[in-house]
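Researcher: Re-running this chain for the archive, since the previous output was lost when a drive failed. Same request as before.
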Amino acid sequence: MTVSTTINKSENLLSQKVLGSRRFSNYWWASIVTMGASGFFLAGISSYLKVNLLIVTDATQLIFVPQGLVMGLYGSAGLLLATYLWLVVLWDLGGGYNQFNRETGTLKIFRWGFPGKNRQIQIDGRIADVQSVRIVIKEGLNPQRALYLRVKGRRDIPLTRVGQPLSLADLETQGAELARFLGVSLEGL
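Model: Regenerated structure tokens:
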């Protein structure tokens, strides 16, 4: 539900889980696209073979060229899209954790990426280099509500998930908790 929930918080360790692509909405859309694309694909095949493969309607009445052919192509494109959506969910793109350890003075930001040599995206640093926790709030057509870690000598590091923006209360709470834990200021409010 929230972007990052505290997994383990002790006096010297703060761990936050970051939700990736394994969200209900991604399962929902992958399922809908799979069902729709399968229907179009089976309608195209039914039109070609003159054998009804659908439960809901009789696609043997379609003329293969152009109707059945176009439905088969739409179904093929939809199945490719559905495959991509299911792979994104399987790989849990964007999922990971943020870990801050005051005892060792280190921070670790970990995210899962696309398969390959850079599948695991990990940023290690020192807590002493953290300048502030920054909150970014943009409203409008493409709203953005995110937390960033401002670190010396680096670009701002995003700490929250991509996608559905956090509520303002959650964003403020998480930002204040992290800034207090790291002993830095909270910017952007």
